[in-house]
Amino acid sequence: MVIVSTPPEAKTESMMAASSSSSTSSIITMHHDIIHTHILTRLDAATLATTASTCSHLRDLCIDDSLWRKICTATWPSLVDPTTCHIISTFPNRHRSLFSDAFPALHHFSCNSNRPSSPPPAEIISAVDIFYKGKPVFSRVRRTETTKNSFLSSPLWIEILEPNELIPTPVKFVRKDEELMKHLEENLCLSWILIDPTGKRSANVSSRKPVLVRRHWLTRDVEILFAVTMAGEPRRTTESVQCMVKVTCCGKVGGELHVREVNLVMEDMEGGKVSGKEGVIILQKAMEFGERKKVGEVGEMTERFDRFLGMIRERRERRHRRQRERDGVSMVVAFIVCIWLCYLAGF
């Protein structure tokens, strides 16, 4: 009689396979209401997406839109807006599509794409949320028509607040500028999701954390800047652009800091404002072709912002240098012409 011994490694693998099979079987036999109510509703987005990849049974449960709607509205309270919910419901995977578009940072640095872009949307939806220490202090949805001549011919400008509207915040206005600036950099966050109802795409055009906090030189208001750099139109000053959100705050020392302006603009490589017509096309291409990646470091967006400002300064200095050279040549030519005319006149 021959006795064949099983290696310990094979036994371990066999036991793990049996355990995995048993776990999968127990999950499949469990009623889906129990899984949905007591397990899936407690998961965050990353864990929910990972759970969906384990088996087809869990995938069918994890793609339920109610789960992703709950995650989206918890992450961005502005998405509770009924009109916005209706637009998101037309997306291929509804709230799951929006989350995959809007949660990671937007990376769109290449102007070239072999895929044709869709026609520009007739309107853009802005869903804006401001957080202080992780808690929402302001949420607003704004619809912007992009077909009006006043929008197309003017610089791209989307204002969220109404004129003379003030939004109170829990931030105390202290006398020391350095202390206040550092506090805002560390504790204030902003999300600005742009939604294209026609193309069924979206993107978050905010750096989430401030890239710069400063005092306005004249009004002494506090300006908090959030910025994302993206590709624009090739071989033009808009080959690379910066989408910048500015939050302007005012207040009195010892009192609360109030938000009085929240607006979005777009700058080209020379520091000029991009028109609404060009801006919509650039944003649309960023939504369609831009990658979404997790930002590795807090200072990564700030470094991109500083690099873009450095590029603006270099181009301005180069332009001014060329202008001075042209002015010098013009003066020399004018002097020579003047001397020649005087010579012809017999002086």
Name the descriptors.
347 residues, alpha+beta, 25% strand, elongated, disordered N terminus
Verbal overview:
By secondary structure, the protein is of the alpha+beta class. It is built from eleven helices and twelve strands. β8 and β9 form a beta hairpin. Keywords: Membrane, Transmembrane, Transmembrane helix. InterPro entries: AT3G44326-like, F-box-like_dom_sf, F-box_dom. This is F-box domain-containing protein.
Proportion in β-strands: 15-25%
Q: Find the structural class using helix and strand composition.
A: alpha+beta
Specify the biggest β-sheet: 6 strands, antiparallel
Given the structure, what is the number of helices?
11
Gyration radius over CA:
28 Å
Terminal Cα span: 131 Å
Q: What is the molecular shape?
A: elongated
Rounded mean pLDDT score: 86
* Low-confidence spans: 1-24
Helix content: 40-55%
Short description:
InterPro entries: AT3G44326-like, F-box-like_dom_sf, F-box_dom. The protein is of the alpha+beta class and 347 residues long.
Can you lay out the helices and strands and say which pair or pack?
Elements: H1 8-29, H2 32-38, H3 45-52, H4 56-62, H5 65-75, H6 82-88, H7 95-102, E1 105-107, E2 123-132, E3 135-145, H8 149-153, E4 157-159, E5 167-172, H9 177-187, E6 188-196, E7 201-204, E8 212-215, E9 222-231, E10 240-250, E11 256-267, H10 276-289, E12 291-293, H11 300-345
Antiparallel strand pairs: 1-12, 2-3, 2-6, 4-11, 5-11, 6-7, 8-9, 9-10, 10-11
Helix pairs in contact: 3-4, 5-7
Domain F-box: 37-73
Keywords: Membrane, Transmembrane, Transmembrane helix
Pfam families: F-box-like (PF12937)
